[in-house]
Amino acid sequence: MTADQAKLLLGPGPSNAHPQVLEAMSAPLIGHMDPEFLEVMADIKSMLQNAFQTENHLTFAVSAPGSAGMETCLVNLLEPGDEALICVHGVFGNRMSDIVERCGAKLIRVDAPWGKAIDPEQVKQALEQHQPKLVAIVHAETSTGVLQPMAEISKLTKDAGALLVVDAVTSFCGTELRVDEWGIDAVYSGSQKCLSAPPGLSPVSFSERAVTTILKRNSKVQSWFLDLSLVSNYWQGAKRAYHHTAPVSSMFALKQALQLVMEEGLENRYARHWEAHQLLKAGLEDLGFEFLVEEGFRLPMLNAIKLPSHINDQEVRSKLLNHYRIEIGAGLGDFAGKVWRIGLMGENARPQAVDQLLSALKEIV
User: Fold this and answer.
1) Composition of the chain by helix, strand, coil, percent to 5
2) Any idea where the domains of the chain sit in the sequence?
């Protein structure tokens, strides 16, 4: 493989972008208040509503990466003294916990071992002992490869009268995500994973119940930039109000990426990610690898693989990157050196990407 060929990004993100997305990103700049750009924003909003499967009016893309989407949800919904129940089964639940405390809210944690899903019974017990304003959970935990079932936890949250906040950074446009049907009040994602757009934008959506909660705040939102009472006026209404200079080129790319999703169809896209996962699973098991996460809870787009003792993590990943121009992800935290995270996201959830990786691994290991 020659040095000028694009690297195959099979890590936890970003994923490779479609050529049409890169072409859209290179279009000439226009002003962020130009009527033509406001139409682009309207198109993005409409397609995000479709992709999130929601009718939420407050649906848009935060002009910052997925971590800012996480913060947008939490700082707008929480005030000092509020209680927040955070489900932690990996890195990103820990991040939400940190933000909760920075908001001055009281943190209540429900923890599961890394590589396992959150047990709804633990959530039920916590809700019986506390009265949190919101429950937050990661739908697709990128650090462990766990896909969290949502139905039971959603029902428990609603029965307790709390808001449900969901991290869908890795699951959005790669596996089933039904915001309205699942009763999700606030959801955030990222542009660089299963959307296969460049990093730097965070699609979000808020239910009417969440919007009402924000409008009834007794204190200012902790962050000026992420304050939805301000930024929402830029994204909706007949008269748009200037809030910030939007990343115009990134928005062009996001619009094109969403158009590709719409053309393919969500169900077809979900099926493609699942089929790529099955192909990878068969090939890796033939090579003697085992999955970290048990069947039924595995992310199709982020595969956590246990490393056999005879494989040197850094050595193999370096060979893949330097000799084959294939990137895969290392393990995090306690999984460092023990687990690989192999992403099959968006444009990379295709048989040719899987075959390319498996062929390289057969030569190395």
Assistant:
1) 40, 15, 40
2) 8-15+265-364, 19-262
Q: Which residue has the tokens 């947008």?
A: 72
State how far the alpha carbon of 136 is from the alpha carbons of 77, 141, 150, 163, 215, in Å.
11, 13, 11, 8, 20
For residue 282, give the amino acid letter.
A
Amino acid identity, position 175: T
Q: Is 287 left (phi over 0), alpha (psi -120 to 50) or beta?
A: alpha
Place of tokens 């916990």: 97
According to the model, what pLDDT value does residue 4 have? Answer: 57
Q: Which residues pair with 90 in a beta bridge?
A: none
Residue 323 amino acid letter: H
Domains 8-15+265-364 and 19-262 share a fold: no
Q: Are strands 106-111 and 83-88 parallel, antiparallel or unpaired?
A: parallel
| Residue ranges with strand state E in the chain | 8-10, 58-62, 83-88, 106-111, 134-138, 140-141, 146-147, 163-167, 186-188, 202-206, 290-291, 302-306, 326-330, 339-343
Task: Please give the CATH topology (third level) of the domain spanning 8-15+265-364.
Answer: Aspartate Aminotransferase, domain 1 (3.90.1150)
Query: Rounded to an integer, what distance in angstroms lies between the CA atom of residue 91 and that of residue 288?
Result: 27
CA distances from 77 to 59, 127, 132, 356 (A): 15, 18, 12, 44
Show the tokens assigned to 47.
């397609």
What pLDDT is attached to residue 358? 98
Residue 356 sits at φ, ψ, to 5 deg, of -65, -45
User: In the structure, what pLDDT confidence band is assigned to residue 49 with cuts at 50, 70 and 90?
Assistant: very high
pTM across the whole model: 0.96
19-262: CATH class: alpha beta
Task: Please determine, for residue 355, whether its predicted confidence score (pLDDT) is greater than 70.
Answer: yes
Q: 134: helix, coil or strand?
A: strand
